[in-house]
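Researcher: Can you fold this with NAP in place?
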Amino acid sequence: MKNKRNPSVLIIGAGATGILSAIRLRESGITDITIIEKADRVGGTWRDNTYPGVACDIPSHHYCFSFEPIPWKHQCAVGEELQDYMEYVGHKYGVTEAVRFNEIVTSCVYDDLGKWTVKTDKGAVFVVDFVIAATGLLHHPKYPEIEGRDEFAGASWHTARWNHDVDLSGKRIGVIGTGSTSHQVVPELVKAGHDVSVFQRTPQWVFPFPNVKFPEWLRKRWQKKPERMKFWKQCYKTFIEQFIIKATVGAPVQGALMKALVKAHLRFAVRDKTLRRKLTPDYGVGCKRLVVNTTFYSAIQKPNAHLLTEGISRIEPKGVRTTDGKLHELDVLVFSTGFHNFNFMRPMEVVGRNGHTIEDSWGAGRFRTSRAILMEHFPNYFLMLGPGSPIGNNSVIGIAEEQVEYVLKLIDLWRDKRADEIEPTPEAVQSFTHYIKDGLEGSVWVAGCDSWYLDADGVPAVFPYPWHDFVKSMASVNTHELTMRRLEASEVAHAV
Ligand code: NAP
């Protein structure tokens, strides 16, 4: 540690991956850390999504930092529980106190001399050695491009911007979209007795995984002896890694079992043949992100719920008109229409080596990275959960824990004075791109659907291999994949 250089690192975002990055950087002896967060609290996804029914669909013992297990209340933590957890960890590790809240990074510009200049909307300017973009991937709400969307006379909002000020009692509510979010929010609205019309464009496969509440006696046992939770974590980890992930990446036995389960779920939960037909997807199981839910099918069969599959022709002041000409009158319209999937750190300006912009790299809707973390032309700039990460079938916290260790190894090359600039070689980016493409064959993501995983070429930006391959790929840095430049002392001095 004594002879190591101490870099300055700027982290964009104080969600789960930003908190984690700050904790691990500090633990590895890096002290010059700046964290910038656009909102007024840590938490990311779990701060932004407060819709009724919001919950994680990954088991909580698996969806938490490995170094900070807690006696969770639910098998899959609900939104509030997760937000509390993020705030608890942020405080406990002294991250929250270090965050600059309510500040938006507007630009990151590389000076070709080993430094990034980062500017914010508050007029602050930081000159740093490394940037970690911990900005999350599904955070910019996507509103549908439906004619007349702005003409609706009632209240309307996106699920990620839930309006808690509107009293929903006695209201006729329309929900557009039937992804994971809609499957959580619709049952809550139906249960509350509202009249709910669900506009479905494409049905989803639904994996039945009930969200049970853990009994108090069990939570007390965990509280008393936290190591007891290890067993539970291991069970969930094995279930995800050996069943869910393997089923998605093409393992025949797990894949067949997964198919059988979701099909049986639909068959037994929806007895009416006409409704079941409407809810049956025509693409492979898991191609779109598998919905994990046990409440939607029963909710949609309640008398106050209506599943509309005719397609929307336009939105009018009084409601939604479907292609059969019928106007569905509504008081409230909720857009459960997902997110701009590849925004990552954008819309901020990111300018790398030789004036190369992020739009030059990603503008055409293709997202090339090396190991999901590094981008060509952007030295010393690291992505958390970047394109090519094993998202969609595992805990993003577990993924980020592996990625942050890889980032620390990269930064170590700088700290050990082996490099001032670290960038992937073009060959490394190409080889990672081919590696991903090769692995996709036989995976569920190419099973004939349109999904938010797809880039402009229709290539899913995921990691289509078993979990242990990912862990292995993060275990050590192959310096042959990197262009590591040492800058002249005079140049570096000038940059400072
Ligand atoms: P989503 O999966 O992208 O679903 C968006 C829905 O809106 C789809 O049903 C889509 O239909 C529909 N839609 C979009 N534009 C439309 C239009 N113009 N007309 C009609 N329908 C339209 O979004 P999401 O449900 O918010 O979920 C996004 C991701 O967030 C999930 O896949 C999951 O990874 C994550 N998530 C996780 C949890 C969790 O518990 N961990 C919970 C919620 C969300 P098409 O299918 O036809 O495009």
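Model: Folded with NAP in place. The domain at 149-212+251-335 is CATH 3.50.50.60 (FAD/NAD(P)-binding domain).
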